[in-house]
Amino acid sequence: MALNLRQKHTECIARMLNLNQPVNATGTANEEVYKILIYDKFCQNILSPLIHVKDLRKHGVTLYFLIDKDRKPVHGVPAVYFVQPNQTNIQRVIADASRSLYDSFHLNFSSSIPRPLLEELASGTLNSDSINRISKVHDQYLEFVTLEDSLFSLAQKSSYVQLNDPSAGDREIEEIVERIVTGLFCVLATLAVVPIIRCPRGGPAEMVASALDQRLRDHLLSKNNLFTEGGSFVSSFQRPILCIFDRNFELSVGIQHDFRYRALVHDVLGLRLNRLSVQGEKGGMRSYELDSSDPFWVVNGSLEFPEVAVEIESQLNKYKKDVDEVNKRTGGTDGAEFDGTDLMGNTKHLMNAVNSLPELTERKQVIDKHTNIATVLLGEIKERSLDSYAKKENDMLVRGNIDRNELLGVLRGKGTKMDKLRFAVMYLISSENINQSEVESVEAALREFEVDTSAFQYVKKLKSLNASVATANLASRNNIVDWAEKIYAVTAGVKNLLSSDRQLALTRTVELLMDGKPNPEIDSYLVFDPRAPKSSSGTSHMRGPFKEAIVFMIGGGNYVEYGSLQEFAQCQQPVKHVIYGATEILTGVEFVEQLTLLGHKMGFGSNAAASTR
Amino acid sequence: MHVKSAKSFRDRTQEFQSIAEQLKKSFSSGSVPDGPSSSSKSEEQRSAVAIQSEFNRRASKIGYGIHQTSQKLAKLAKLAKRTSVFDDPTKEIQELTVLIKQDITALNSAVVDLQLHCNSRNGSGNTYSDTNSHSATVVDDLKNQLMSTTKEFKDVLTLRTENLKVHENRRQLFSSTASKDSINPFVRQRPLAARSAASTSNAPPLPWANGTPSSSQSLPRKQMDGESQPLLQQQQQLVPLQDTYMQSRAEALQNVESTIHELSSIFNQLATLVSQQGEIAIRIDENMDDTLANVEGAQGALLKYLNSISSNRWLMIKIFFVLIFFLMVFLFFVA
């Protein structure tokens, strides 16, 4: 049973649009019920990657508005509200109800609405005597954004900063953990699975894992729980594993330059909610959508950039060939033959040609889109010499050190300030032993180019405080030395040496967790099983190999990790499924900005401008 | 093993209503629900509601009609797919085709009516703009559904003509020698039926090309009708010769006609292609209204600020003081 998050999410939304009645297999009901959809900003972000306007029309939604917009009454239609359960939204709903904007209100909250707000809603609508307009109130448990089939984000901003803030109090940390747990609970409710939770010891991961475990246990004990799976016999092979990690587990991935297509588009061009705006070839901004309906993107998203350019070329050639064939068959060259018998054949060809026209136009559009994107990317890469950044950073991580001159050369070379800062931070993370003089020269070079070094200082402090930032990478290298014990790890290590693709520590850890064999690296990881009774000791049978996994990164994930996890999942025999999610999907630039913020909070106030914006 | 899909949402309506009951009980001793204020608004609302509910009724009637037509169409498609040569349910197909054509024409006119009604209401100006866009969208949706139903109808008819052609070919293959004999009794048995079929298929107005395949059925029949009537009256020896000649001419004409039909369908398809380019996949957050609202808000804020500046008496007094001060300075130090 493959977990396709996007499909399940879309189904839930379709059901909600159908006024929470099961959607007929035949599509339209006997009577068309036309409705109006109203959402708030957060829920707009949830809906836009999943549903387009024509899908809305198919479900009978005629108008769609933001809740803050000034709306006029529309009589005779039910209104479907999809909002977050907070104070302002409730006030707005009460105001709308008292103005009798719509016939009936179907309220859907993206997560569970707390009791006090429900009472406030009731009292507000009673006061304005419009309570009979509220026909239904539902908790939808949909408070997360699904970007691709196996990629989701909780859209919670700056969670890394808030969790690592030295001045954060217990209460704030608890609030953040609560929000993350709510988001994860929504994901699990939509997938309708109760996974086995594993996380490393200490840090936000453990807090989130235990809170989530508690929440699931409480929920399973309640009457109408949302996880009614088949029977009491649930084998470990059917339950997925949920691995929760903290960003500090592997800091380098969030910062490094990567050269694969998806990561490049996200980092350089700013892909937000599957939408992209680039400078068109004839001037003017063009806006594109890149999601699973784009066949080129799906197939070639994880290729390196030069290969992508080659692919675009080959697709263009194939398209031109097809167009020529169509032209030939419809008699452009030979002249029309007006035989009585051949007329039929000609018209048949003509009909086939016309039928294939839409498909050809679509292919051309996709090719044009990617050509445009690739051209803009190429311009940026040349200007900032991103390919050398990516290559050198990879070398640094694999080798563990870098020639001093090379380092300074890169810092003085092309690239924006952010690129240089990222490179410097990567140098810090990847070098095994910090050479103080080198570090000072790096800092001098950074200051020379007016780069705000607070992020650099922060990472330096982090590294000195705990060596855990570095050990994740060391682990992948030490196994090569420790080959006598772990033969499996040797083959992985040799593969690492031979291939230029260095496997991320995250991917390795997830692989080990999914295998379930005891391994000193992961033995210290905690296990939570919400279905098992609290005092059970026989959970060992639950550690068998898992076929499905949900990986969650607290503090910000990105497409590099997503790509690497998908590669790992595809290479396995039999094919495994991994869903990846994070509190938010950050580009390298955004993550370094968060690090800079933390550096400021720690007092590494910079001598340059206050922010690197 | 399809597990019954667990609901991933929770119905809080009961909870909400129980809270409402509790609050109502606590309120019932206190305030009176404000009736008079709501009734003053309801005057103009009632008329708007009445118009809207009529619109809704008509729209739902049209939607129901379309749904029933598509069901009939499904039945017709099943009938047309049967490819046996001799067990041809021609009569049923003919009746069903006529019925569906009448339905579609009626629905078309109903949708056009609805749109006129909607436009006239929008023009009268006392309605709210959201209602207008809602009505316009409903009419668009109905038009789209009708268009897709018509397209399906056209496809079924094309399929039917192809099947007929196949039947004709097979008939000639199997019964090439006895064809003339079989045609004559065919004509003699149902002369009235053929003539009435020809007349009924020509009588209703045919606004679009998909009506013509049915006339292509009747055309060879009419030809054979028209040709065989004088033939029967003439000498019997000339019948075989002239029959073959007429038959071949009829075939050629049929070919040409079907080719023209196909060409017309191609042109129709091209036309719909061109018109459908307008239905690009728009996303929910690509909302121009958002930016418009923001710009309007900004403009309003700027206007307010302008007002506050321009009508500020203190500002004028301050400016006066500054001017006078500079005048003094000028007088003292220069003069």
UniProtKB/TrEMBL annotation, chain A:
GO terms for biological process: vesicle-mediated transport. This is SEC1 family transport protein SLY1-like. It comes from the Eukaryota. InterPro entries: Sec1-like.
UniProtKB/TrEMBL annotation, chain B:
GO terms for cellular component: Golgi membrane; SNARE complex. It is a single-pass type IV membrane protein. It is found in: Membrane. SMART domains: t_SNARE (SM00397). One of its GO terms (biological process) is vesicle docking. InterPro entries: SNARE, Syntaxin, Syntaxin-5_N, Syntaxin/epimorphin_CS, T_SNARE_dom. GO terms for molecular function: SNAP receptor activity; SNARE binding. Residues 243-305 form the T-SNARE coiled-coil homology domain. The chain crosses the membrane at residues 314-334. Keywords: Coiled coil, Membrane, Protein transport, Transmembrane, Transmembrane helix, Transport. Residues 24-49, 192-232 are annotated as: Disordered. It comes from the Eukaryota. Residues 26-40 have a biased composition (Low complexity). Residues 211-220 have a biased composition (Polar residues). Belongs to the syntaxin family. This is t-SNARE coiled-coil homology domain-containing protein.
